[in-house]
Fold this sequence. Notes:
Blueprint: H1 2-23, H2 27-49, H3 63-75, H4 80-90, H5 103-113, H6 115-126, H7 139-150, E1 157-158, E2 163-164, H8 182-185, H9 190-222, H10 230-257, H11 260-280, H12 285-300, H13 302-313, H14 320-346, H15 350-411
Helix pairs in contact: 1-2, 1-14, 2-10, 2-13, 3-4, 3-10, 9-10, 9-12, 9-13, 9-14, 9-15, 10-12, 11-12, 11-13, 11-15, 13-14
Protein name: Major facilitator superfamily domain-containing protein 4A
GO molecular function: transmembrane transporter activity
Keywords: Membrane, Transmembrane, Transmembrane helix
Amino acid sequence: MAVSGLAMGVIDTIANIQLVTIYQKDSAVFLQALHFFIGFGALVSPLIADPFLSDTGCGNHTGNGTEIMHHFRYMLRNSLIAEHNITQSHLPHEGEAAESIVHYAFWIMAVINLPVPIVVLLLMYREQLIPCCLSGTTSLLNKDELAMERKSNKCCFACYNLSYVTFCSVTGHGDIFSCCRNDNLRTLPASFFAIHVLGGMVLFMTDGIVGAYAGFVYTYGVSPPMSLPHKTAGYLASIFWAAITAGRLLSIPLSYRFQPVRLLMFNLVGAIVTVLMLLIFYTSSTFLFVGTCLCGLFLSSIFPCMLAYTEDILDYQGCATPVLVTSAGMGEMVMQVLVGSIIHTEGSYSFLLCGVTIACIGFILFIALLLFQRMHRNYLTGTSKKSAIVEEPAAEHNGSAKTERNEEKERC
């Protein structure tokens, strides 16, 4: 599971970086599409596994064993982490009267994912990017070389006119972290680092809410004062992921029409209001389902919007993307542990109280990000004016020299 998680983390980071690098100003639309498929996979995978989990037929198991199987079936809809932990701990083992067939679900998911590496390998072979299959210049490399020829006499002016950095090379995309090397750290403004930190902290909080809500809404639903039936509460997480998937699909055209910062403001405020209403109407099972749907809709597009917005502030250099992706993953990991511990000690009511607190902290951090974005923009404006003042005398000097040479030619 650790190796699988490591591989998925690499794929997630590279996919986001490539979309930002390729589409830049238009990356918000494509990031929404990418994260729509992520939510779609999270919605479908538990539904694939569900038919292979049985509530009956536990043979020599006691009543507790049957209850554990019943509990596991609905916990699977809530958390992928719980899926693997409970599978190893509580399912019947070999030699017992009834064996679990849950491993068929993993084989099905593997077969569904198999075409992806096959298509990637075919593309690499077609473009002759596999080392053992190189036979000449490929069309993909020709495009890179053509781009390099256009930029052969130019240098990427990175870090906002603070230092010259060559980003591109024929063999790859170059070093996207060049602006953060020791040579440039002294000249970088404080707002540059603050934008990275605050953007990462906002995603730490919001993705933490997503992980905690998906992981513990079932626990909240079956606990007093809600006390829903297990089967009914099991649909809450599925509704939450379905709302996230629908929200990301809806955000694709919205990202084309509205700026990411406006969508971020709207979604953060909507998430706070929704969780606050859930806290007020904590005894209403109907509003729990409605609030779960609304919460998924508002939280769905925060990650891709924040990624597009932060990279837009930093001129699409790609340095912020790994920071934001890592912060979001850490938020999902840490907040589930933190909220789960609080629920265990303080009771299920603290679940929604934690949600309101985390959402408010995320909104405050976002307001701080807006302030530092304005400071950073003012800094860039001042830097560009200084550059223009320095370049103007040089241009005047060159112009006067050309005039003198032309006059001398006319005299000759």
